[in-house]
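QA checklist item 7 of 12: single-chain prediction sanity check.
[x] sequence parsed
[x] length recorded as 266
[x] structure emitted
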Amino acid sequence: MTRPAPPVPAPPPTIAAPANASPWWRSSAAPGATPHYIALRDLIALRIETGELPRGEKLPSERQFQDGAGIARGTIREALFQLEAEGLIYRRDRSGWYVSPEPVIYDPTRWAGFMTYVAEQGRRPETQTLSKVESAVGEAGRPLGVAASAPIYVITRRRLVDGRPVLVERIMVNPELAPGLFNFSLDGSLTRILKAEYGVEVVRNRVDMRPCALIRDEAAALGVKSGTPGLKVVRSSFDRDGRVVEYDQEFWRHDAVRIHVDTEVG
């Protein structure tokens, strides 16, 4: 039975600022007994929640916060880092801080590819193949059930939503199941290619998820600072004979995805 697509949340209402009003960051909430960085964090978070700071909006610079709120730059950064950890804002390299876009809703119990479930949510999905090599990967190839010395296909792709990189994935495929795979464009659905061109059909997925830090190649590909929080999703895809036909490791920006599972009880 096909599971319905998860609900798409409605955007919060946007509240128009009064004409000739002073910039909001010049009227920082008085902290009282609350630490200054928490007071500033709450001020920004409230405006994001109410829609006064819409998704994708650029925040004032750290200098503007400093001049307007009259607090130290270190305190301002502490507030911004807290909001980043919560997934409410993100940094663009050499551009500043922005309100995070609405996260993509991902249901691991529903079999639908990235291009499909992102488009169903009214967003624009895109896939970019960064590299594709055939080589032995030693013990890393064990999930495919091949010898450590056996060559396998290793595909690295970056996936975007509305032009923003949200995840990097590293996929391993046994060449014996799909000889000549690299002759096809891999900027779409790999599962569809395996089925249409090789008769290899995925009938079961096993998904594991855990928090991670985005470092080195993953951080560079996503344009984030090394150590930025992320979500690692490992997917093993099986055919009817129980063979692993795809072994996929996805490294998501933590602010770009929300897990949604709807199950029936009884």
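[x] summary fact logged: The helical segments are 36-50, 62-69, 73-85, 114-120, 190-198, 216-222.
[ ] second reviewer sign-off
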